[in-house]
Amino acid sequence: MDINLAEKPLSDIMLRPLSAALGAEVVDLDTSRPASDAAIAHLRSALDTYGILLFRAQRLDADSHLTFARRFGALQEVAQKQYQMRGKPEIYIIGNVEENGRPIGDPSVGRLWHSDQSFLPYPAIGSLLYGVECPPQGADTLFANMYAAYDALSADMRARIQTLHAVHSFSEYYEALRDRDPTQPELTETRRALFPDVHHPLVRRNPRTGRRALYINPGYATGIVGLPSAEGNALLHELFAHAADARFVYAHQWLNGDLVMWDNLAVNHKGTAFDTGQYVRRMHRATVAGNAELYRASLLN
Length: 301
Description:
By secondary structure, the chain is an alpha+beta fold. The protein is about 25% helix and about 25% strand. It has a single domain, classed as Double-stranded beta-helix (4-Layer Sandwich), CATH 3.60.130. It has an eight-stranded mixed sheet, with helices on one face. The protein has a three-stranded antiparallel sheet with strand order 15-9-17. The longest helix has 15 residues, at about 230-245.
């Protein structure tokens, strides 16, 4: 029986670990129903512990998806306006979806390891991805635990990177995306100016628990501030390879109705391929926007 978060005691919220690496399933919980502040705090605490939360067999329309997501903070409008849901600019449509012969879903998103929106001064806090139509084969999402990746670094490496910052570049990410998918429109100078390069530390901490995470983004990180290009790139690629080690990774195989929520500070993720000629994939994502207060609280100094 589905749990109503507004009425049931927190002891009725059961968590089932998804893997040794990270993640937990929140069992028999209906996220379309009202939730108390205490229940949301309980889920936030679980997210701090597990990095990702899975809610199976949800029945979410756009309004209920957004209502639940807003309980965790203000939402980010989708930057790619062509992939916004009509009338719901906070819903990002992902997949090989068409309407009247026109693509309405982003078909190329997420094939590299990344955390969402690290190209912003205050990166996204969390993401809530809902499986509307999921292929029976392929299209998995891989999640990697950046707390565990940091903990597994040698003491020398932790000391080396503690004060270093990476350059995160939307422009370079987008040009690499166009190299892989020439159907993507050119990046205009106006849009390039909206997203100048930003710097983020290689190590951040959870503002509530203090736990440290390796904060790197192969999709956007292009260099290390203050290091020669060759040295910075070598360090980044060493960290990228370390962070993608299988011992830190959980592979999620989607079912229709799955809602997966993750912490963008603590988790990197990437999508996998599927047969786009045989299957349709449609996903809806709501993104909890970053803010100055939480970002500053995540800094070591």
